[in-house]
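Convert to structure. Protein one:
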Amino acid sequence: MSGPSPFGVPRSRGSYLNHPSIHPTKLSTQSGVTIAEFLIAVAIAGVILAQVCLLWLYSSRSFAAQMNYTDLDQRSQRALDTLTQDIRQCKSVTNFTTTRVTFIDYDNKLLTFFFDSGKLIRTKAGVPSKTLLKDCISGEFSMYQRTPIAGSADIYPTSDPKLCKLVQVRWTCGRKLSPTSPTTSESMQSGRIVMRVK
């Protein structure tokens, strides 16, 4: 139907059909995340984060334990070097137990090494005491005479300080990284030291 509209505006066929109010609008569809999907994603992320934290903790403790072991070994080596240097210059042994040994030093002064309360201590007349080693779990001295065992490279042990020519010292050190962590211990350190002056 054509002709002027009641308001004086020409109207053409289908003008009402083309009016936007005649056609229904299309609802836009939007994708979203459900609560279940969100919870699953959070759970997966939590598991991954926990694994990363455990790996970091294990690596940190392993590194700290290795550094602790290295430090113990270096301290033991320095203590053994001091013992070797001092005992080689000694003239004789005057007193001996498995945890304490006393020598007459090259200058005729008494020189003593002993284990006490987890420490290896050096004392000498007229010289302040010196702690050579800490964190000792065990430690002991042994004496040997100069006579070799027949058919062997070893020598006979002795309990008489007058017959002592060689002193053996052994110890094991250990340390805890924290009160709840296991003790990190080094392998036993051992050395046989000959008194060259005697």
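Protein two, convert as well:
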Amino acid sequence: MELTNKCTNPDCEHVFTFSMGDSPFGIAVGNQTKCPRCDTWQPLPSTEIEADLKFGHLETQLLEMKYASFVPASAELVPVAMAFTQNVDRVVALAVMPRMLALNVGFAAKRIRYPMGLEFLGEGREFPSEALDHLMMTATLTDMVLARLPNKATYLALEGVLSSIILGAWTAFEALATDLWVTALNANPKLGVRALGAEVKPNDDDSEKRRKAKLKQSFPIQRLHKHDYNIKNAMGSLLRDSKKWDFGRPDETCDAYKAAFGVKASDNSELDSIFDNLELQWLAALRNAFIHRGGIADESFLSLVDQHPTLKKSEPDKPIILDGQLAQPLIENAAGCGAKLISFVDARLNV
């Protein structure tokens, strides 16, 4: 991406070309560039761009989430639930950050730009105090301030905030799903026996009982040493480390939960409703695209989001376009799925 323009230094009257190079964060720092003749820093010519990132919609909706209201009855699960809540808190705080900056701009200068398409004067246009006071109480201010950005670098910085929110939301759920399973099996090792298929059931015949009695699971000796050779409170940790299930894959994580908690068909159905949730799959697809492809759509990504009304329109080998309106339901859904998973395990920990 090349952004090139000419700059005239009013001090030495030298006309020179500045370039931000391959990176929009290149030699131009703070919307200034250095004159090669006299080494003074000069403001860049206007490189403003339009933007419609919809941060106002994002933060308004996320602040209304009720994900922090559920506290598990099982004391063993409380630290895991608190960690999840704090991780989602950070995601919400990041989403609100542009609004906080917009408020600071408005309060400090009492000046904000009119939205694109409306007349504005010079570097800004002063609002009547009553209009400014009203805007301060609404998310409209955020999108109004961000309607014109000084350059492409600023846009990419804000887009980076959006992608970080997506990554943070998925990481919060993925970490919860792993830690919750491990903690539950550490608290109740019988769940680990069930997960390994060795739990003896009332209707098992003698042959089945003998088969289950012979089931084996190996653990590295160093892992056992770490837990002082006592697996009573380490069953979940040992099974996670055994790599029997890959908790980096949602489908295998779901299998691990079904193995430990899927006593009834309704249990498996409830787990499917969480892990096979379409919006959660879209969030995972976005996470993978940004982590492994730098935010570029490929055929694999497009096949995973072919039912999403906006993401399905992404072009192959082109950047995926994010905005707050797209991100908000995915983040809120991940928080909701996490709360449902905590509730599910809490109800079955000692059953």
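The chain has 14 helices and eight strands. Confidence is low (pLDDT under 50) at residues 21-29, 109-128.
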